Amino acid sequence: MLREFWAPAKGMLILGIDPGSSITACGLVDSQSKQTFFNYIKLKKNLNQNEKLYSVYKFILRVLKDFQPQEVAIETPFYSVNIQSAMLLSEIKAASIIAAKEEGLDVFQYTPREIKQAICGYGAADKNQIKFVVEKTLKINLKEMPFDVSDALAVALTHIYTKHL
Whole domain around residue 57: which residue ranges? Predict the structure, then answer.
């Protein structure tokens, strides 16, 4: 169980998800205390698409069961010219949404531009800027973490700011 060290939530507990084809990250943020938890799953390249989707589903479901957030926010992935990548990202996003809906949770979606605007005040901010602001806002160090983790926490913060939680 992941929740052993977690203090009871003081505000609303939000799960932010950054879906990715190689790394899918999640970040929990308490809207009042700003207490955080974050984790990620690195998907092995040798897994077929069905196994990747199921791995993400199980990962998100485990986090949902362990922490019991009240709402889920997910980044709507940016789709490039590679239709194959776009399809895989959409399916990974869907696996995360299905896990949340199975737990009876509402899911809110934010575009990369909305997240950058909410976090940095600039819709074209880069990943380093996002990571810097997330670290300062939450008073954490993500030095050894992939950008996906700071992105997931940024999604949760965006939801908190957008919904005035």
Answer: 3-163
